[in-house]
Amino acid sequence: MKVKYFEVVRTAAVILIALFLAFIIISLVSEQPLESIRIFLWEPLNTKGHIGNVIEMAIPLMFTGLAVSLLFKANLFNLGAEGLFYFSGVIAATLAIHLTLNSFMHPFVAILAGSLVGALLSAIPGILKAKWNVNELVSSLMFNNILFGIGLYILNYKLRDAQAFAAVSFKFEQTAMLTKLLPGTRIHTGLIIVLVLIVAAHFFLYKTKWGYEIRMTGANREFAQYSGMKTAKVIILVHLIAGFIAGMGGSVEVLGMYSRFQWSALPGYGLDGALVAMLAKNNPFSVIGAALFLAYIRIGADQMARFSDVPAEMISIVQAIIILLISAEQFLKFWKNRMLLKEAQRNV
Amino acid sequence: MSSLFDVIFTTEFAFSVLRVTTPILFAALGALISNRAGIINIGLEGIMLVAALTGVIASAYTGSAWLGLTGAVMAGTLIAGVLAFFTLKFKTHIILGGVAINMFASGGTVFILYLLSGDKGSSTSLPSKVLPTLDIPLLKDIPVLGPILSGHNVLTYMSILAVFVVYYLLKRTPLGLRIRSVGENPQAAQSVGVSVVKVQYTALLLSGFFAGLGGAYMSMGYLSLFTRDMIAGRGWIAIAAESMGRSTTVGTTLTSLLFGTADALANALQVLKIPAELIGTLPYVTTVIGLVIYAVSESRMRGKKLKEKG
């Protein structure tokens, strides 16, 4: 065992513990635990449709996971992706309803508008942090609720279709909706967009000067400042980019998966993004795997709720355990120390 | 406009302000204690939700509202204990720990509710109990004040009492002194022999205790049953209130009352067709503005001091 593999092993251990816990919960509540566990583990891969579900679910998680990763990388505890995701979705939906464009320009314009709004709104906590050191966590949490209130107002008073039976918007124009990639699934072109974004983010973070400045500011803002970086600018820049990505995620999700806007509560993808970022250790490429994993266990839980007697909400308990353990610095630390000691002895 | 005043200047409205302030005030006091010890507990929303459900379950199975309340408070304290264990022992990041608690609560409560009642929406099938309301003798006969102050749920009176308890606790007791010193400078506190971890444990448990009271009020006073996601942002408003109140007991209490008024207003104005969605954002908007004003004046002061020195 090498120390450098420690983080990988630790992540694997956390996932195993969480899955083990899931099995225990299932065994406690289910009449036929083995069958339930089988559904939970295998059903997401069983049919093409289910694999499609996993990938569809992973798309928004990749967007928010990537956005949160960038913020965390700059050591900014901003949880605003939640509100931005929602509000940009409202913006994209509004344009999807009211614009008349061809089927290439329509989603392009709607998504771009949603992303830009996301970037601008995200910049507010960023500027407040950079200029006056306003705690970005508290301000971003407040913004989540503000954006949700305004978004819900727009839905209920401006977009709502009185003919429909539920609180949903008018139908989007056919031209606005994203193209499906695979027949038999709902996987849409958003998948390509997010994968391109992830590659771009990796390149940006590790191969450009700006990316370097973000990482340095994250590692130690004061040191970065003394070495001549304008950290205030860097903080605003990260907020702009992260807001852009989160906003794009919300817009893509709305246009890719729905034909009407129908979120009357925050969808939760922003906070899930924090979980994805943690599992991915804030690394853009790892975001793909982390998002797929999370989507996998969720679809598994959904299927289990459908075909057995275990409610799907079980998964939120598993998620909570993963977050608590994965961000626990001390968890398995003794083991790392022992490995370090062994390696040191070998080198002597 | 005159109809607006008709709504506000009534004893019913003043009564409803106290009614909706109660859960916010409890949770805000919880946020206050943990923040003074230097740890921000953003899991309040989730703690309240778990406590609300536990209160309903415990009172339904024991047949006693008071045992229900005890159960709710114990559940709140327990969840805060789990958060404390992970953040203080395992060094989980406190914010992420709070996110985990909220995630656990929003799904976990539905999970347990479904197992016990077969319903994912509300606890209508559980025969849960409600905490009593109190008519205060003498006071209830005074015009205007009587209808406003008398006849509230017993927890509403406890929340007012809790303000004084927390004030006394933080200002006048050795524990309060330790909590404040740990929050202001943990190293200095450690150096004079205060166990930082122990104090932070206590503070987090207390914050869970108060949030638990707030949660119990929601399902056993404000309403008489548990419904899915019934806390509906009150935990966040409490954090906002604490932050607007600049981490003082008096400030936190006053902002809680202010936000409670905004909440009551949102309910009352629905009659006048003023969108509740927008009024609901008022506490958060006020908090952001408050934070900015404070931070700007703070950085101005620092700038001045630097200039004077230079």
From TrEMBL, chain A:
The reply to whether Transmembrane helix figures as a keyword in the UniProt entry is yes
Membrane topology, as annotated, equals:
Multi-pass membrane protein
Q: What is an example of a GO molecular function annotated in this UniProt entry?
A: transmembrane transporter activity
| Keywords noted in UniProt | Cell membrane, Membrane, Transmembrane, Transmembrane helix
**Which segment of the chain is annotated as a signal peptide?**
none
Source domain of life is Bacteria
Q: Which GO terms describe its cellular component?
A: plasma membrane
Q: Where does it live in the cell? A: Cell membrane
Q: Which parts of the chain span the membrane according to its record?
A: 12-30, 50-72, 84-101, 107-128, 137-155, 187-206, 234-258, 314-332
The protein's name in its UniProt record: ABC transporter permease
TrEMBL record, chain B:
Look up and give the membrane topology term.
Multi-pass membrane protein
Q: Which organism is it from?
A: Paenibacillus oryzae
Compartment(s) where it occurs, according to its Swiss-Prot or TrEMBL record? Cell membrane
- The reply on keyword Transmembrane is yes
Spell out the molecular function terms from Gene Ontology. Answer: transmembrane transporter activity
Predominant subcellular localization, coarse grouping: membrane
Cell membrane found in the keyword field:
yes
Which InterPro entries does its entry note?
ABC_transp_permease
User: Know the name of this protein?
Assistant: ABC transporter permease
Give TM regions. 13-32, 39-60, 66-88, 95-116, 154-170, 201-220, 278-297
Q: Which Gene Ontology terms of cellular component type are present? A: plasma membrane
Top-rank lineage group of the source organism: Bacteria
Alphabetical UniProt keywords? Cell membrane, Membrane, Transmembrane, Transmembrane helix
